[in-house]
Amino acid sequence: MPETPSTSRRGLLFGTAAISAGALLTACTSNEPKKQEAATDNAPVADDKPGKAVTIGFAGPQADHGWLNAINQNAKSRAERYSDVTLEITEGSNDTAAQIGQVQTLINKKVDVLVILPADGKALTQVGLQAMKAGIPVVNLDRIFASPQAYRCWIGGDNYGMGLNAGNYIGEQLKDKPNAKVIELAGLDNLELTKQRTQGFDDALKNYPNIKKVARQAADFTVESGQAKMAQLLQAQSQFDALWNHDDDQGVGALRAIAQAGRKDFLMVGGAGAKSAMDAIKADDSVLKATVLYPPTMAASAIDLARALGQGKGVSGMAELEIPASLTLYSAVVTKDNVDEYLPTGFN
Amino acid sequence: MTQPATPAQQDAPMPAAKSAPDKGGSRRPLGLRLDVRNLSLLGVLAVLVAVGGITKPDEFLATSNLQLVLTQASVIGVVTVGMTFVITSGGIDLSVGAIVALASVWATTVATQEYGFTGILFTAVIVGVGCGLVNGLLIAYGRMVPFIATLAMLASARGLALQITDGKTQIVTVDSVLDLGIRDAYILGIPPLVLVFAAVTVIGWLVLGRTTFGRRTVAVGGNAEAARLAGIDVRRQRLYLYLLSGLCCGIAAFMLIVLAGSGQNTNGNLYELDAIAAAIIGGTLLSGGRGTIVGSVLGVLVFTTITNIFALNNLESAVQQIAKGAIIVAAVLVQHRTLRGGDA
Amino acid sequence: MAPEPPLLTMSGITKSFPGVRALDGVDLEVQAGEVHCLLGQNGAGKSTLIKVLAGAHQPDGGEITWRGEAVALKSPIAAMRLGIATIYQELDLVEGLSVAENVFLGHEPTTAGIVVRGGTARTAAAGLLKRLGHPEIDPSRLVGDLSAAQQQIVSMARALSHEVRLIVMDEPSAALDPDEVDNLFRIVGDLTADGVAVVYISHRLEEIRRIGDRVTVLKDGRAVAVGLPAKSTPTRDVVALMTGRNVEYVFPERPAAGAAAGREPVLRVEGLTRQGEFAPVDLELRPGEIVGLAGLVGSGRSEILETVYGARRADAGRVLVDGTVLRPGSVRAAVRAGIGLAPEERKAQGLLMLESVTRNVSISTLSRFSRSGWLDHRAERAAAQQATRELSLRPDNPDARIRTLSGGNQQKAVLARWLLRGCKVLLLDEPTRGVDVGARAELYAVIRRLADEGLAVLLVSSEVPEVLGLADRVLVLREGSVVHTADARELDEHRVLDLVMEGS
C-alpha cells in the first residue's frame, strides 16, 4: 500500500497543522500561509530554504503497530525533505532500558537536537534531563516526560480530546433518540492514554442525558483482540445505537466481528485515523461513519521543530520569537464530508 | 479373543508372589476414557455454565453465544492440541504464538493474496510446518534444549513477522477466505472454524490414544532412555512432534486470518502461555509421559468461557486475568487432590 | 538382653494408604550398639516402617518409645533432634551443591545465625569423611561430580554430622563394590562400638550374616519374626519367613553339557573396543547358551553390553548377528537384528513407570499391532498378557500400573517385552538387582527356560554366585579386559574373585 504522505499540501511550517493544529495555532490556519508575513518580520523563522546543517537524533518505540510505523515514516520523509537535516534514527525498542541506552548513544554522538518518543514517558525522564543538561534540546513526542525540565518542547496528541470529540460526535448523531445506548471498545487498559480517552468520552456523553454507556471492554490494539472483544460485546448487547472504538487497527478486527455477526443497526466511530478506516468512511458501506484523529504527522512536525531549534529560529505563522514549550494537537473528527481532505494522512 | 482377566480368578495360588495393589484391575471401556482430571475440569465448566446462565440467562444460553464461545476457542484450541503432543513427549514449544504470527503475516502479503484462497491456506500451513521443522531439527539433531530452541524461534519468527509487515495491518481482500467467517457459511449452525477445531481435536485424540505415533510420544515423554533402549527412534519422533506443533500453528494461523480478516505481526500474542496453561489444567504432565487431548480442549473451553462470562457481564479485563490465574491454581489443586487419593 | 531399656521400641505400628494397609501392627526393638537387620520382600513394609521412624510418615496407630519414654516423631526434624538419622536408598543429595554444603544442609555452622561459615563446614566435613575412610573426597567438590559410592559416603557423613544414636541404612550396599562394602562394614563396626545402633536393610543374606546381630522379618506389613539371631538362624528359615514357603535358593539345572556347542553362534563380537572403557573383546554366543560376564564395577561389563546393543558407539570392532554386521551405534539396528536388552537401571532405562504392564511389554513390538499406524488395543493387550503369563508375571493383569509391581515382576515385564518381540539374543544387565530373594529363583528359572527354548543370553552381574550359578560359560573381566574364559562349572567364587582382583 502507498506510503503515508507526510507532507501537508499546505505550506505552513507545520505541515500537519491543517489537520491537527492545537488551539494555539488555529488562528493562523484559516489562511494560506504567507511565509514572509510572519508577525515579527525581523525575527528569523525556519523555512524550506537550506540553512545551518542540523543533526537530529530520533528515538522511538518498536514500530509494531500501524500508527507507530507511520510515526517513523513521517519523521524520515520529513527529514529527507530538508537538505540541511541529517537524521540519526535508532532501532525502535519497547524496552525502556534499551531505549535509554539508545538515547545516551545519541547524546554521546553530540547530535544537535533530539526527538524522543519514549516507550514509557515517565521512565525516560532521566535521560531527557541528561540530554538537556548536556545542552541538547529535546523535542518530546507524544508520550510526555514526567518533568518539563526534561524537554524543550513537547508536541503530541490529545487523548482526552479524542474521547471528548468522539463522544460529542456520537452525542450529536443520537441527540434526538430517546434512551440511546452506547458501547465502548477501549484500547490497552494498562496505558494511561486509554484511561484519558475513556474519561473524555464519558465527559462528553454527560452533555447528552438521553444517552447511556451500557458496556465497555478493553482490547489491546491488535486486530485479533479487536475481533475477539467485539464479538463478545455484540453477544452481550443485542441492541445498541453507537460504538466508539479507540483504535482503527483493532477496528479492523472489530469490523470483522460485526460483519461476522451480520449486525448493521448502529453507528461506529473509530480512532487514530488509519487509511483503511478512512476508506471505509468514504465508501460509506459499513457501520463505520467517522474516526477521531490521533495524527502520526506529529512526527513530521517534531522534525520541523527540531530543525528550527537547531538553527536557532522561531516558527513561521506565529508571533513568537521562540518555539513554544508545548503543542497539543487537535483530534479532528473525520466523516464522509471531510474525508477527502484527510485521506492522504491515513496510515496503513 | 481376550477374556477379561480379573485378578481373583486368574491368580494362580502362588504364595510368594505378593500381588500388588491392583486398582487398574478392571478393564477400561474401550470408548471415551474420562479420568479424574477430565471430570474435575468438567465440574469447573459446569460451574461456569451455571454462573453464566444465572448472571446473563438471555445472552449466555443463546445458540449464538455457544457458536461464539466455540469460535473464539477454535484458534487457540488447535494450537493447544499440537502443544499437548509436545508436552506429552517431555518437550515444550514456546514459539507457537510467534509461528502463528509469522504464518498469518506471510499468508496475507499482497503477493500471496494474489493466489487466492489456496495460496493463503497453503502458505500458512507451509510456514507453520517449516518453522516446526526448524524447531525439530534443532532439538532432535542439534541436541538443543526445547526451551532454548523454541525461545530462539519465538524471537526470530516474531522479528521476521515484523519485518514482513513493517508494523502494518495486512487486510485480506480475498472474499472466499473472508466468507468462511460469516454466518452464511455455518454448516447446520456450526461455524466452519469450529468444525476444523473439532476435526483437529478428534484426529489428535485418535493419534495420541490409538496409534503407534501416539504411543511412542508417550514413551519418549515418560522415559526417553527406556524408549531408546526399547528400539524407538527417539530423535525422529521428536522431529515429528515439533513438525506437528508447527502444522497446528499453520492451521491456526489460517483460522485466525479468517476470523480477523487480516494478518498482523501481533497475532498470536502469548498463545504459548495460554496453550501451556490449558494443557496443564487439562491434566497433561509438564514433565511429560502423560497427556490428554480431551483435557486440553476442556482447558481451552474453560478459559474461553470465563472470558465470555466476564465480557457478557461487562467486567474489566484486570478482573478476568485474576480469575484466570485463580482457576489455574484451583484446577491444579483439585487434580492433585484427586490424584493423590488414587495413588498408593 | 541388656538390663537397660532398649534404645527404641516400636509396637503395634499401623499405617494405611488409600487402598493399602502398608503396616499392620509392626513391632521393632533396637538396642544401643547393635546392628539390627530388617528383612522382607519388596512391599513387605520396610520402606514405610523406616519412614515412620524417620518422621516422614505419621503412623495411624501404635506406640514408639525412645530410651524408655513415649515419643511422637512428628517430623523429620523431630526424629533428627532425638538422634535418628536415615540414609535412604535413593540418595537425597543436592547435586548442585558441594560435599560440605550437602553434609550441613539445614544445620549449617553460622556466625550470628546468618552468615554461613564455609571454612568451618569444610573442615568439619573433611573430618567426617576421614572418619568414614574416604579422606580423598574433597569437601568443596560438587556432589553431582561424585560417583554413586562416593555420594553414599557423603550421605553417611551427613547422618553423622548430627548427634546420632540410631542410623537407618536402606540397602546401603546396593551400589557398592566388594571393597566398598568392606569399608561400609568397617564404618558400621566403628559406629556400634561407639554405642550407636544401626538398623540395616538389605536383600543380601550373606551381608546380614557378616555384620548383623539380630533380625526382624517383615511380611505383608507385619513382623513375622522379631529379634532372631542374625548369625545362627538358618537361611532356609529366614527365606521361609519372608516368603511364607520353603524356597531353596537354587539355580535351575543346566542342560546336558555341550548341548549348545554344536550350533552356529547367533551373536559374534569381534575386537569390540571403546577407548578408556574396555580393550578389544571377542565373544561368541550360541542359541541355548547363557554366557556370564563377571567383574567389578568399572571393569567394563555394562559398557560391553551396551556397546553390543548399539547404545554406545564402538571405536573399533564389529557385532554380527547370524553373520550380518550391525550398523554401529544404532540401537534400532540391534533390535531389528533380534537383540534385546534388560538394562541395569530398570526404572531409569527400562520402564515407563507411569504406564501399564501392557504398554511396557508392547513398546518394542508396536508395529505388529498396528495397521498403517493405528493400534489394535485388543490384540496388543492379548499378546502382552500371553507373554507375561509365560513368565508367570504377577499380578496377572496387563492393565496394572508397572510401578505397583515388585522388582522381580518389573524385570519379568522387561523380559516379556523381548519375548514378545521374538528376539534371538538377550542381554541381561544385573537382572536381579532390587529383586527380593524369593523372586530371584523364579527369575533364574525363567532365564534358563528362555535359553532352553533357543535364546542366547549374555548375562552381567556383580554377584559372582549368580554368574556362576546361572551361566554356562563365564568371561572374567578386569579393568576392561577379558582375563579368563571358562566353563562355569570349572570355576568357584574364590577363583573368580582372585581373577577379578589380581588377574592371573
TrEMBL record, chain A:
Indicate where this protein resides in the cell: Cell envelope
Start and end of every Periplasmic binding protein domain? 56-313
Q: Which InterPro entries match?
A: Peripla_BP_I (IPR028082), SBP_2_dom (IPR025997), TAT_signal (IPR006311)
**Keywords linked to the UniProt accession:** Signal
| Superkingdom of origin organism | Bacteria
Primary localisation category: other
- Matching Pfam families: Peripla_BP_4
Q: Tell me the protein family, please.
A: Belongs to the bacterial solute-binding protein 2 family.
What is the protein's name according to its record? Answer: Substrate-binding domain-containing protein
Q: Which organism is it from?
A: Streptomyces kurssanovii
Q: What is the lineage of its organism?
A: Bacteria, Bacillati, Actinomycetota, Actinomycetes, Kitasatosporales
